[in-house]
Amino acid sequence: MKPAGQFQNILKAMSDPAFYPHAVTRIEFRETHISAVFLTGQWVYKLKKAKNLGFLDFRELSDRRRFCRREVELNQRLSTGVYHGVVAIHVDGRGNLSFGPEGEIVEYAVKMAQLPESSNLAALLEQGDLDDGRLAALGDTLADFFARAERGPEIDAFGDPEIIRFNTEENFEQIQPFVAGRLDADMWAFIREVSRSFRTDREDLFRHRMRTGRIRDGHGDLRADHVYFHDGVQVIDCIEFNERFRYGDAALDLAFLMMDLERLGHGRTGRRLLDAYARTARDPEIYALLDFYAAYRALVRLKVACFSLKNGREPLPADAGRCFSLAYRYALSFGRPALWVFSGLPASGKSTLAERAAAALFMPLFQSDSVRKQDADFPDDGVTAFNAGAYRPVLRGRVYAKLLNLAQEELRKGRSVALDATFGESRWRQAAVELAADHNVGIVFVRCMCSTETIRSRLARREEERGTSDARLFHLDDMIRNYEPFGAEMDGVCIETDTDRDVEESFYDTLAAGHALKSAQAEVLANGSGPSGPGVRKAGPA
Predict the structure, then answer these.
(1) For residues 163 and 210, what is the distance between their CA atoms, to the nearest angstrom?
(2) For 29, phi and psi rounded to 5 degrees?
(3) pLDDT tens digits, one per residue of 514-528
(4) DSSP strand pairing (97-98 vs 227-229)
(5) Which of 311, 258, 376, 328 is nearest to 525 (CA)?
(6) Cα–Cα dist 209/215, whole Å
């Protein structure tokens, strides 16, 4: 019998409850372009179709057996008690099909425990039943998975900028024939242009990820409908048939899940999950890469939808259009430089946060203390009275002007940049906002806040621990009195970080809130609704 006919006979036999050597509640048949799946109530059986699609080849029975075994082995990394093994399907001399043991083996299937649909991540979101505990558990599970996942020179190669170039360009080439009449040409051109620029400008970041072990044998298809909360966290259906689709930066898998959650209307949940993962994995750099990879993943999903179109006139389904809109929004976020401004009273923790954020996001940092002391025109008076010496108002103004000029030089080159200074006067805060607006870039104004008691304690330590800052405890009352309140100029551009907390907590809060603010600003642009924003935000995932 020809393989196609044999396969149809198997599907017919497996549609009968009597075929199974166990109780069957009811049989549900599901099908993809590469698999046929039978759900029986307690067990699930997944068969591979005898197809060659270029990126996979299941034509030979021996290959289907090999990939069934590989599927079980790989998916046991992120699940417990779900993947039970591979079963053989036999045919006897009378043509009867069964799980054997008599007769010739004609097919193989992966045998899995059937997980309740109500425990699926997408279902829980739809029901409004996903609590913070489950979200934290998923973040911890993924962080632990990538920490243990296989790595090595062969896998590291998939983080190389040239491989990333190949993957993104392949997307563009394969989608291009479907653009005319279906996708906005200007948006499409923008996505391609900024993706190419990001790849080129961030080669140092991609290579750093390779050197620091962030390229792993991952999942490859980390979507919401592949995540379950049943007897712990269960993540199923990784890609077993092509290592190229599975090897890559951990950020690539996380971006797929974040994009999928946003596609389903749960972007805030995605950001909370990202925050949980980044903290556990100690991976702050993921914020520098996430939107780039999310745009790539959104285009992959768009490409799959394009391939399913039956003719040149058929419109894209609504979900594919949503993926294209998301790719454009992500491109606006990673494709526009951002001006990060770390502000607050001396000893509020702003310099510590600024230095760590600038390092994580791979952007230059200019600090008022360094600018002041590196300029030969400024008097080297050391610690002086408030508003005296190098800190006279006229000289302070020169420092801020130089900081903004240095930032402007970076923004003109298309690079994000961070500034670290008190920014106690509203005119300098307004100047920073106007600089960002003039260059049409994002802006994240980080207002570092802590108690006066904390500042006093930190300033007292400076009496013994010399540093670049000349601020001292006897300056504090004057500094507080002269610090002008934040006003409407901060709406839509400012986050507040509580620096009384542990440095790590404040740091990750700032990255999460900053990323959320940049995303909100990109969404405003994508919707064409002007520069208004959501006001001042507290640091943390939003």
Answers:
(1) 12
(2) -105, 130
(3) 999 999 999 999 988
(4) unpaired
(5) 328
(6) 7
